[in-house]
Amino acid sequence: MAPAFAADRTAEAFLRTIYGKPYIGKHAKGVEFESRAQLLRYFTPAVTDLIEADEAEAAKHQDVPTLDGDPFIGAQDWEIARFDIAVRAIDADHASATVRFDNLGDHRTVLVTLVRAKSDWRIDDVDWGGDAGTLRGLYKPAPKH
User: Fold this and answer.
1) The whole model's pTM is what?
2) Domain range spanning residue 44?
3) How far apart are CA 30 and CA 33, in angstroms?
4) Band of the pLDDT at 42, cuts 50, 70, 90?
5) CA torsion 9→12→18→20, rounded to 10°?
6) What pLDDT, in 10s, does the model give residues 92-136?
7) What does pLDDT average to over the chain?
8) CA–CA separation, 69 vs 65, rounded Å?
9) How far apart (Å, rounded) are the C-alpha atoms in residues 96 and 94?
10) What's the angle, vertex CA 38, arms to CA 37 and CA 40, rounded to 5?
11) pLDDT band at 3 (very low <50, low <70, confident <90, very high)
12) At residue 125, what are phi and psi to the nearest 5 degrees?
C-alpha cells in the first residue's frame, strides 16, 4: 500500500503554479492576493497573519505596507521569460527551493521555505538574497540601540 501523501501535489508543482504563467512575459500581472483566502492559497497561516497585520496597520495610518513589492520575486516590476526551480525535500512536511530567473536584465535567485499543509504546500518564508532580506524578516522589529 502506498503512503497517504503519495497522491499529494509536489512542492515543485505548487511552486510552478506561482513561478510560471502569472509572471511570464512583458504584460504579466503576477499573483494577486486581495483577501485572506487568497493569501492562504500561497502562504502559511503565520505568514498570512504577518502580512495582514502589517497591511491593517499601514491602512490605519494611511501609509504604505512594509511589503511594498511582489513577495515571490522581490520586485515591483518584472519582465521574466522563464524560471528554473530546484526543490530539496527536508522531510515529509518541509522543503526548500531555489528559484532562478532573469528579471529586467538582472539575474535573481530566490530561496523559498515550504511547509506541507494537508495535501498541498505553503510558503513559510522567502529569502530574496543580499540586502533584500527575507519576507519574515520584514516584519521583525528594528533592534533598539
Assistant:
1) 0.88
2) 8-135
3) 10
4) very high
5) -120
6) 999 999 999 999 999 999 999 999 998 899 999 999 998 889 999
7) 90
8) 9
9) 7
10) 65
11) very low
12) -170, 155
In the numeric block, which cell numbers belong to residue 11? 512542492
What is the distance of C-alpha 27 from the center of its chain? 20
Assign residue 19 the CATH number of its domain: 3.10.450
Q: Would you say residue 142 lies in a domain?
A: no
Residue type, 95: A
Q: Which residue in 58, 49, 101, 111 sits closest to 80, CA to CA? A: 101
45-67 as b/e: b if 16+ CB within 10 A: eebbebbeeeeeeeeeeeeeeee
Tell me how many domains the chain contains.
1
